[in-house]
Description:
globular; three-stranded parallel sheet; 42% helix
Amino acid sequence: MKVIDMHCDTISRLLNLRVEGKEETLRENTGHLDLLRMKQGEYLLQNFALFVELDRDGDPWERVRRLYELYREELGKNSDLIAPVLRFSDIERNRAEGKLSAMLTVEEGAVCGGDMKRLRRLYDMGVRMLTLTWNFPNELGSPNFDRELGKHAGESQRAFEAYFHTANERDGLTEKGREFMAEMERLGMIPDVSHLSDAGFYDVLEATKKPFVASHSDARAVCPCVRNITDDMIRKLAERGGVMGLNYCADFLEEVPLGQRNPGTVAAVVRHAKHITDVGGIEVLGLGSDFDGIDTHEELPGVQSMEKLWNALKKAGFTEGQLEKIFYGNVLRVYRDTLN
Length: 340
């Protein structure tokens, strides 16, 4: 069993702990993901997101630079276990040398401030995927969840459902966002439409030619939360040759009444996997755990749990060949097709 995971927030978690005066490392920590457990779990590649929360982290560019320095520091300390990916051939080289691969991503297009020079700087830093928005509108586009509009979502079941079930079908990519799509394709940087509005998804589809991804999104037909993507989006993503990554966030897998604990189940992940592959085919599905960015999933609490997920999917009828595509093969294909 090999694993490629398109999204985790471990670097942001480690930096936040440092700010609090707590020292944990990428090699071994108490979070969802560390290198020793990844090595034991036969991971091939992990995408590490530099996540910026606009209403909390101060200047977005300075925050992403601090995250980047921590990422570089941790990879340097652990060069015996892991090496960065700048081009597709790096994955094969790292694998031959018995090392894990690390792909650097950014989650929040606002770090660029609409400045193309900053986008190119991110590429020079090693960033190979950009999640265009988080939960705030920015210079590139708008999300489905808007943090400002969601401040009252927890006040009642009705308010919760209005927020979690109302997609933004009006506000897509800005003109600057379309310019960024062209430059990202030229550079070899993959657009990530997780968090992006419904309108934005179709704008990315129109503005690009190469495959793109929804790195950590589930199926809206199974769980109606608008952080998930629709069946039509799944089909369009599949037709483009893109991939979506199963997100283990319990609230994106299965909704429960407001105020009720949602521990997360493997059965819910299996339901999403079955639906997504029924709609878009086996080639469209990968993994996008969102580890260290979500509350702990009770049955999939970390990277040590991937064999449990493999066995559950196998029991549900997926063949060994299909599981290999989901766990690493489909994402590897996208990287082969997109990275320069």
